[in-house]
């Protein structure tokens, strides 16, 4: 007897679409049946539960491979806990996250990782894995990198930005990449020239240009292009595969495209904010209440870029041509009150980050509605490639027998209004997406056979989510 059948829907995988009923036994998918077969072999009447998905898409649960719950940043910490952040994720059709365990300069990697396990264990509503931030490359952290794969942590992040906090210089990057190549770790890179940015930012602030808008001016696209190129060359030299995170500059994407055309093992990720939000929007975002400071809602790094200069369009193009392979959120929420406010008099003190974990699946679906990407490409970007890139494929990222029953029933005729007091379960006092109207709606979210969200209610529990020990990236050769 089946535990659950999702009937009558259109199953969408990265490989294509099919009319099929999905049969779930326990935590796994046990069969995909052609329409009518469940009735004819009598499974239907015996199933414990049937969900009617007529007229809806049945897709693998979203995998958000770039989140920062409780990240310490700029004297405060990201406002979502693992409980609030993963609950919001479930509302938005995401059933797995990969968060960043943090090692700062002067700390032991093992301690940072242990702390991240403590924060997440027993608190997550959905499954979760970790990348490891290496914020201080030295003999000790290089040694610690050797055991990460055994712990199911098969990717790590370096920063070419944030001197004095997470920054690595070229020598450190080279050594980390050599170690990554040896152990099969995927190098994730925050590619911005931090030391040069800090000079520009100081010059702006000293000349009285302290409003949030100037955050993006200091973090000029040249800083992203240059760092992206440098990271590519270091990866080429060491033969360590490279994944550039949160890309927003069209010139930086051109670098990734150039590297890929030359056969290099280089990948690029962008985020919803770089597809829909712009420097122009940030500049224009002024209300009586916040004055010029309302722009702090959109302070993130890499920064929002100019729509007029074609950066947003270039991100969409990259997704279409596969020069960019993934869309993650870089979910790093901060409230205005007491957090973003820290930088009221100086943009350099505004904690960097935007919260989007609840909206990624919906926002990317607009690409389908607008004719920018196909349905299978939507699924590939939000679920299948993240699974393949980060060693989860087969278990996650696909609707097929044997896979975890992480499934979303998505209504293309539904509607989602984004904003505080509407769809908003993230622990933030504002939404960077306020007023966005979405064609489409997450009707049901299922994680390993357990229904987490349906009929506009959250039925999941904190602690349902399990730690994901990940395999090596599928893109390693
Ligand atoms: O603005 C951002 N991206 N905040 C999170 C930290 C990072 O660099 O990913
Ligand atoms: Zn970053
Ligand atoms: Zn990030």
Automatic annotation (TrEMBL):
Enzyme class, first EC level, given as a word: hydrolase
Alphabetical list of CDD domains matching this protein: D-HYD
Residues annotated as transmembrane: none
UniProt keyword annotation of Hydrolase present: yes
UniProt domain Amidohydrolase-related: residue ranges: 57-451
Gene3D superfamilies: Metal-dependent hydrolases, Urease, subunit C, domain 1
GO molecular function: dihydropyrimidinase activity
Cofactor: Zn(2+)
Highest taxon, organism lineage: Bacteria
Family according to the record: Belongs to the metallo-dependent hydrolases superfamily. Hydantoinase/dihydropyrimidinase family.
Name listed for the protein in its UniProt record: Dihydropyrimidinase
Native source species: Nocardioides vastitatis
């Amino acid at each position: 007897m089946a535990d659950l059948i999702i009937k009558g829907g259109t199953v969408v995988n990265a490989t294509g679409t099919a009319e099929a009923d999905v049969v779930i036994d326990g935590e796994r998918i046990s069969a995909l049946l052609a329409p009518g077969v469940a009735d004819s072999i009598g499974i239907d009447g015996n199933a414990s539960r049937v969900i009617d998905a007529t007229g809806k898409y049945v897709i693998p649960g979203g995998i958000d491979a770039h989140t920062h719950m409780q990240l310490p940043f700029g004297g405060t910490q990201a406002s979502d806990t693992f409980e609030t952040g993963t609950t919001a994720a479930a509302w938005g059709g995401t059933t797995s996250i990969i968060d960043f365990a943090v090692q700062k300069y002067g700390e032991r990697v093992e301690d940072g990782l242990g702390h991240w396990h403590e924060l997440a264990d027993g608190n997550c509503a959905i499954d979760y894995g970790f990348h490891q931030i290496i914020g201080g490359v030295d003999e000790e952290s290089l040694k610690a990198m050797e055991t990460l794969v055994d712990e199911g942590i098969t990717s790590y992040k370096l920063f070419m930005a944030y001197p004095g906090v997470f920054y690595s210089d070229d020598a450190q990057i080279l050594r980390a990449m050599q170690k990554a190549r040896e152990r099969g770790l995927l190098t994730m890179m925050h590619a911005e020239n931090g030391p040069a940015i800090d000079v520009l930012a100081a010059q702006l602030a000293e000349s009285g240009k302290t409003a949030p808008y100037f955050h993006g001016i200091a973090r000029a696209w040249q800083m992203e292009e240059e760092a992206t190129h440098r990271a590519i060359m270091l990866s080429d030299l060491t033969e360590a595969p490279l994944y550039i995170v949160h890309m927003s500059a069209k010139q930086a994407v051109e670098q990734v495209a150039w590297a890929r055309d030359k056969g290099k093992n280089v990948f690029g990720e962008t985020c919803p904010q770089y597809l829909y939000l712009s420097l122009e929007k940030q500049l224009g975002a002024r209300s009586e209440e916040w004055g010029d400071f309302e722009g702090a809602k959109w302070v993130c790094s890499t920064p929002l870029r100019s729509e007029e200069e074609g950066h947003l369009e270039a991100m969409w193009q990259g997704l279409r041509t596969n020069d960019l392979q993934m869309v993650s959120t870089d979910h790093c929420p901060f409230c205005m009150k007491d957090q973003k406010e820290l930088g009221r008099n100086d943009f350099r003190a505004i904690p960097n980050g935007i919260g989007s974990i609840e909206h990624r699946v919906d926002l990317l679906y607009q690409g389908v509605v607008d004719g920018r990407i196909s349905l299978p490409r939507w699924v590939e970007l939000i679920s299948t490639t993240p699974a393949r890139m980060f060693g989860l494929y087969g278990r996650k990222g696909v609707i097929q027998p044997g896979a975890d029953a992480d499934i979303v029933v998505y209504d293309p005729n539904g509607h989602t209004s984004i904003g505080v007091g509407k769809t908003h379960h993230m622990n933030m006092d504002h939404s960077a997406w306020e007023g966005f109207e979405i064609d489409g709606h997450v009707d049901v979210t299922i994680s390993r056979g357990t229904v987490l969200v349906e009929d506009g209610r959250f039925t999941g529990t904190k602690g349902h989510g399990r730690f994901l020990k990940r395999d090596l990236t599928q893109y390693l050769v």
